[in-house]
Amino acid sequence: MLAERDNSRDPVVLVLHRTPETLATCGRPFSIETSKTSSTPCKISKSGWTFAVEGAVEYCRIVFDLFPCACKVQLLVVEGNRVNVLNLWSDEEQNLGQVLNELARVGHPAGSSDTLPGVNIALQSLGKHFFEQLPSGGRTVECCGRILVVTPHAR
After folding, report:
1. Which of 29, 55, 85, 123 could form a disulfide with 45 if both were Cys (CB 3.0 to 4.6 A apart)?
2. What digits encode the pLDDT tens for the residues 1-12?
3. By the 8 A CB rule, do 7 and 49 touch?
4. Residues 117, 76: contact at Cβ < 8 Å?
5. Cα pseudo-dihedral 56, 58, 61, 62, rounded to 10
């Protein structure tokens, strides 16, 4: 019988796929107060992109809080043939401030795209991360990681 592996330390690459479809509103509109003097609340709706970003930020927050040194997360945003790498594997970039600042620079989706470039970059990034972690001495090391893709084109 194989021993179970502790996969809580596996690195994760989270790929957010930006398309015009992610701009469509999702869920029910909700009301917010615009000012204390106005009695009519403002109704707003969230887009699919907003939900994807909120989910990615919450995932990163949980990992950074619970596994600050053990688990690494890299966030990629794919649009067209462009892949934006929002943070690197270094300890200095494994924080929520880095992720939020880079997400703010990315902005809203504009063009249609395929997720394949993002998945390719994610695979290359995991490979590079593992290569940098290999101990010297020629030992065989099991390298495991996850790639999570958030896209409106799931089948």
Report:
1. 29
2. 455 656 667 888
3. no
4. no
5. -110
**E strands, 51-129, where?**
73-79, 82-85
Q: What pLDDT, on a 0 to 100 scale, did the predictor assign at position 67?
A: 84
Segment holding 55, helix H or strand E? helix 48-66
Give me the pLDDT at residue 1, please. 47
Residue 69 · residue 77 · CB < 8 Å = no
Separation CA 45–CA 48 (nearest Å): 10
pLDDT band, residue 121 (cuts 50/70/90)? confident
Q: What is the largest CA-CA distance in the chain?
A: 71
Distance, CA of 120 to CA of 118 (rounded, Å): 5
The answer to whether 146 touches 5, Cβ cutoff 8 Å, is no
**Nearest Cα to 77, choosing from 95, 56, 63, 98?**
56
Q: At 12, which amino acid appears? A: V
Task: List strands edge to edge, sheet with 82-85.
Answer: 82-85, 73-79, 12-17, 146-150
